[in-house]
TrEMBL record:
InterPro entries: QueH. It comes from Mediterraneibacter gnavus (strain CC55_001C). It catalyses: epoxyqueuosine(34) in tRNA + AH2 = queuosine(34) in tRNA + A + H2O. The keyword Transport does not apply. Keywords: 4Fe-4S, Disulfide bond, Iron, Iron-sulfur, Metal-binding, Oxidoreductase, Queuosine biosynthesis, Redox-active center, tRNA processing. This is Epoxyqueuosine reductase QueH. Belongs to the QueH family. The gene is queH. Pfam families: QueH (PF02677).
Length: 206
């Protein structure tokens, strides 16, 4: 089985765009400010980015509010090459719980998480198509706890479904995760100790 290097795929795309002299519009799904910090620093050199905050999995609502405000604050403070804007998705808690039904006790990083990736990536692809973006992607692959191969598989499936290009990536490469920690310290960002959902919070305290 061929193992795909998603960072190399991203490098190829960036080289191609630079040759064309284009700055495409990218809809970037973000899970939180710390994870987005490095991704924004990196990709804003080559793309005009809108951060799409769609995370119906986050529990409780006070945590959701804290994270979305932190995301907006970071965008306002970062000095980036190309403009970065912000778009809030709907906080559809019920949609997440319907998706997770029957998978509540599945171990973190398993089938429930994969369905959650798909829920958020498909919503991002749909929004990218509707609003005329050139590409969409997600910050999720920056986490060492997230399955980059699965995220890219889901992203490419959404590309086929919605007809908008998915930007293949594995943002933990090139010391991306390390850089996100450095930027989080630099900007004094709140770094949560669980992924976001009620089930991940429960497992983090066990």
């Amino acid at each position: 089985m061929n193992v795909i290097n998603y960072q190399k795929e991203l490098d190829k795309t960036i080289v191609s765009l630079q040759k064309e002299g284009r700055v495409p519009k990218l809809l970037l799904h973000s899970c939180c400010a710390p994870c987005s910090s490095y991704v924004l620093e990196y990709l804003s050199e080559y793309f005009e980015i809108t951060v799409f905050y769609y995370n119906p999995n986050i529990y409780p609502e006070s945590e959701y509010t804290k994270r979305i405000l932190e995301q907006q604050e970071l965008i306002s403070r970062m000095n980036l090459k190309h403009p970065v804007s912000f778009l809030a998705g709907n906080y559809e808690k019920d949609r997440f719980y319907r998706m997770a039904e029957g998978l509540e006790d599945v171990k973190e990083g398993g089938a429930r998480c994969f369905k959650c990736y798909a829920l958020r990536l498909r919503e991002t692809a749909q929004m990218a198509k509707k609003a005329g973006y050139d590409y969409f992607t997600t910050t999720l692959s920056i986490s060492p706890m997230k399955n980059a191969a699965k995220l890219n598989e889901i992203g490419l499936a959404a590309q086929k479904e919605f007809g908008v290009k998915y930007l293949q990536s594995d943002f933990k490469k090139k010391n991306g995760y390390k850089r996100s920690i450095e930027l989080s310290k630099e900007y004094g960002l709140y770094r949560q100790d669980y992924c976001g959902c009620e089930f991940s919070q429960r497992s983090s305290t066990q």
